[in-house]
Amino acid sequence: MNAVILLTSAAIISAMTAYAQTAPPTTAWGDQGDGTYANPVLNADFSDPDVIRVGGKFYMVASDFHFMGMQVLESDDMVNWHYISQIYRRFDEPGWNENGHYAGGSWAPAIRHHDDRFFVYFCTPEEGLYMTTATDAHGPWEPLHLVKRVAKWEDPCPLWDDDGQAYLGRSQHGAGPIIVHKMSADGRQLLDDGVTVYTGPVAEGTKWLKRNGYYFLIIPEGGVGTGWQTVLRSTNIYGPYERRIVLEQGTTDVNGPHQGALVDAPDGSWWFYHFQETPELGRVVHLQPARWLDEWPLMGKDLDGNGIGEPVSSWQKPIVSAGRSLPQTDDDFSGPLGLQWQWNHNPQDDHWSLTERKGFLTIHALPAAGLRSCRNMLTQKVMGYVTESTTVVEARGNCFAGLACTGKEFHGVGVTPQGIEVENKGQRTLIRKGRFKRLFLRVRNDCINHTHQFLYSIDGQTFEAAGEPFAMRSGYWKGIRVALFCYGDSGQARFDWFTRMEK
Description:
This protein has one helix spanning 10-18, and strands at 30-31, 36-38, 47-54, 57-63, 71-75, 82-86, 107-114, 117-124, 128-134, 145-149, 153-160, 166-172, 178-183, 195-198, 207-211, 214-221, 228-234, 242-247, 258-264, 270-278, 282-293, 296-299, 314-316, 342-343, 352-353, 361-364, 378-381, 386-396, 399-406, 410-415, 419-424, 427-433, 439-446, 451-457, 464-465, 481-488, 492-502. The strands form 8 sheets. Strands 24-27-36-29-30-31-32 form a 7-stranded antiparallel β-sheet, with no helix packed on it. A 7-stranded antiparallel β-sheet has the order 25-26-37-28-33-34-35, with no helix packed on it. Strands 3-4-5-6 form a 4-stranded antiparallel β-sheet, with no helix packed on it. It is mainly β. Strand 16 and strand 17 (228-234) form a beta hairpin. It is built from 1 helix and 37 strands. It is globular, with a radius of gyration of 23 Å.
């Protein structure tokens, strides 16, 4: 992280303390267009977010588990974000070509900037500790380097000390303890077996910060839905560490506010990103004001006077900016594939194309028992409380192709040689017989009323319900997604475009 600046401006502290929490409508989130923001700032599944500042830009990564890519996001104002790159395309490990690693893959990455390079570290629960580096966060990123072949490590984070010595902090599967390793200066090799520096209640999510002679370990404790944010500090990297809880749910409705990144803005103010677990959208991202007192960070607002911050629902934006902007969603498939898209497990690259028919995404069928095992399923996050996603598909051959909604369960609507079918938890039902050369498909995701609905249209104007409304919930550590798919014994699907609209 860049050199840090102690927040001493009484005016900033006073404004942060005095700024009243407002109660925005339940559908308010992100930039409100009046100089404020409402939490969450990213109302989609960006699990375990980590954020750094480099100059006047902010960069974020998050867990992607079994979805390919690990997206890198960029922001100028800490509230509005967009995708700028993806770190990897596949895992060349057993099971990743057969959809065999749901809830596996990348867990709790860390991004850091050192010696004019960006570094990203993460662990997978089965394969090991990985890292990659780039001179520009827009990419290209170097191929993944396996630092150590090991199972059941979690949440690594590097630190390059003032004397150039590199360290890696991490936790263990099941959460804790916190272990510190020496590391080679290039970040590619661990130099010892590690030293345990802290054991706590579900201690994980290790993030380093060094400031004014103190080593800070910023960690979540207590579990995803019920936990809090803890900060440890010591003048020696191996401890002993003092401990303080700095953010808790308290009287708010923000469950388990923890696991994220403490980052400074160019004006010297401090801010803390964390996630909140929600039933359908997954782990959405909140932004809390922060400040320092007696060399301890204080996060959120101390509403009950117990010395521990609680999450705010809205606040003044950290940096003045004009206009709301969100991560990309729409795609006309004119190429290259948009950074919003992530394959479910490894893609089979000889079975999809953006050039086979110009302006279309072509997916060739591969055999599957249902949507869960469907290869070459292209997904993106559902973003927002009530949204509508629409595509148009042309299919031929003995296949089932269309639009899916995925989470703990898999639901889909699409076209087959028999007509229009819906899939619900692995069972397909024909809802309209006929031959359909071109079919418009839509899904409405209502995460307020917890109901979701597929629709179809022959002309793109009049849409009819496709099957009954269905429930969705997040699963395999990820929030719900929409997806394009094609599976079967033969044939192909061509998707002309995809659009998303927040309702």
